[in-house]
Design a protein that fits this description.
Strand order of the largest sheet: 3-2-1-4
Distance between the termini: 37 Å
Low-confidence stretches: 148-152
Structural class: alpha+beta
Number of helices: 4
CATH architecture: Alpha-Beta Complex
CATH topology: Sufe protein. Chain: A
Number of strands: 4
Mean pLDDT: 91
Order of helices and strands: HEEEHHHE
Largest sheet: 4 strands, mixed
Helix content: 40-55%
Length: 152
Amino acid sequence: MALSKLDNLYRAVILDHSSSPRHAGELQTGCVIDLNNPTCGDVIRLTVEFDGDLISNIAFSGHGCTISTASASMMTVAVLGKTKAQAQELAQIFSEMVTGKEDEAQEALGDAQFLAGVSKFPARVKCSTLAWNALKKALEMGEAEVKLTHDH
């Protein structure tokens, strides 16, 4: 596939997740994490429900740029139904990917692997990692229903 066609595919997937985000909304129960990126104003509220060690439900709300919203949508799809350890591993793979480290493990990210190009735009890395950082905090908090406000 020609590079320009591949770039267009990546853009289309990112725009699709941004304009029709998966798992958008709020859950009535679960671990609640609020994060913001003061650099650009992106704000996310991530709610994660656990069933033992599994992520049984996940949702996000807030407002952000195309990259931030798409990344949050992609993250929820990637981690739903995964164990805490699997989700933590995916978050680590994503963080390394958007800071320029390429690895075959990126395929495990699903659509989120299409955000690899963010590494070329350092100002956008924080946008892409906001939801993933909220996930990491939720995994640390576990079952506790906690609300945090944290500048990314």
